[in-house]
Amino acid sequence: MFQALLDPGDEVIIPAPYWVSFPEQVKLCDAVPVFAATAERDGFRLHRGSVESLVTPRTRILVLNSPSNPTGAALTRKELEGLAALAVERDFLILADETYESLVYDGYQHVSIATLSDAMYARTILVNSLSKAYAMTGWRVGYTAGPKELITAMDGLQSQMTSNPTSIAQRAAVVALTGPQEPTHRMREEFARRRRYIVDRLNAMPGVTCLSPEGAFYVFPNVSGLYGKRSQGKGIGNSTEFSAYLLDAARIAVVPGVEFGNDAHIRISYATSMANIEKGMDRMAEAVKILG
Ligand SMILES: *Cc1c(COP(=O)(O)O)cnc(C)c1O
């Protein structure tokens, strides 16, 4: 989508923390990622005002990834309405990455910004993936919907790059999308249970705080309370060093928040068994406890 649409120097507004691929994909087009900061103390809400102050005549797209990877934060209808009004007023497109739309908790209702009005329908490019909601990561199928001219341009580009996903994977995707959704609902219930558990365990660790996000299957705990501590003479001063420490001392793999644009945090996925999560949290708690 970026390659079909962006000219060198065009600007794309990306809320931070962001999924790692968004800025890199923009840079591949010699376009410019512009980051709209969101804050932990505020549940990583994206405010219209912070986007508005970044809009210039070169702004082409605002990326909305709700629920978000890595924070799990999801936008409310009211917040979407504010951003939609701004998109119309200042004439930019919305890229809505709704990969986690069905993995939401505590009664949160996902709303697609494309459904808010005819004007938004005309300026939203929706992207989605079978990878998460249907546990089909290895099948490599996703889909997009948007204004016809743009989809045609994307098709022209993409058909010279990958030809197509295999017909087998396409058939499986049709079954996933049109068949009973009960398996996804069961997955969501299980994710909700793991989420409650992992958030409680993390908040019980001294120096660690963790929000309980609306969606996706990640937590994004703040571990900056541990920066400045030492392990075997080596200082831990940022998310990369803390993640390396967890790999060495606890043998658990997490992703440094700096890769998502926020060095105070790490990202942990709870898309693994409850037994693994319990073991991982036990090990992390021990590793945090022995830091000097
Ligand atoms: C996982 C993910 C995707 C989809 O990736 P696939 O290549 O379809 O597996 C898209 N956007 C976000 C934010 C993701 O986390």
Q: What would you give as the CATH superfamily of the largest domain? A: Type I PLP-dependent aspartate aminotransferase-like (Major domain)
Order of neighbouring strands in the sheet with most strands: 2-1-3-4-5-6
Distance between the first and last residues' Cα: 48 Å
- CATH fold-level name of the largest domain: Aspartate Aminotransferase, domain 2
Main beta sheet: strand number and arrangement? 6 strands, mixed
Which term fits the overall shape?
Answer: globular
The average pLDDT score comes to: 97
CATH architecture designation of the largest domain: 3-Layer(aba) Sandwich
Radius of gyration: 20 Å
- The helix content, as a percent range, equals 25-40%
Keywords:
292 residues; alpha/beta; Aspartate Aminotransferase, domain 2; Aspartate Aminotransferase, domain 1; 2 domains; 6-stranded mixed beta sheet; 3-stranded antiparallel beta sheet; 10 helices; 11 strands; globular; binds pyridoxal-5'-phosphate
In short:
37% of the residues lie in helices and 15% in strands.
Characterise this structure.
- The chain is α/β, with parallel strands linked by helices.
- It folds into two domains: 2-178, Aspartate Aminotransferase, domain 2 (3-Layer(aba) Sandwich); 182-289, Aspartate Aminotransferase, domain 1, CATH 3.90.1150.10.
- Helices cover 37% and strands 15% of the residues.
- It has ten helices and eleven strands.
- It has helices spanning 2-5, 21-27, 48-52, 77-90, 118-122, 148-158, 167-178, 182-203, 239-250, 274-289, and strands spanning 11-16, 32-37, 59-64, 93-97, 124-129, 142-145, 218-219, 230-231, 234-235, 255-256, 266-269.
- A six-stranded mixed beta sheet has the order 2-1-3-4-5-6, sandwiched between helices.
- Helix 8 (182-203) packs parallel to helix 10.
- The protein binds pyridoxal-5'-phosphate (PLP).
- Residues 19, 65, 69, 97, 99, 129, 131-132, 137, 142 line the site of pyridoxal-5'-phosphate.
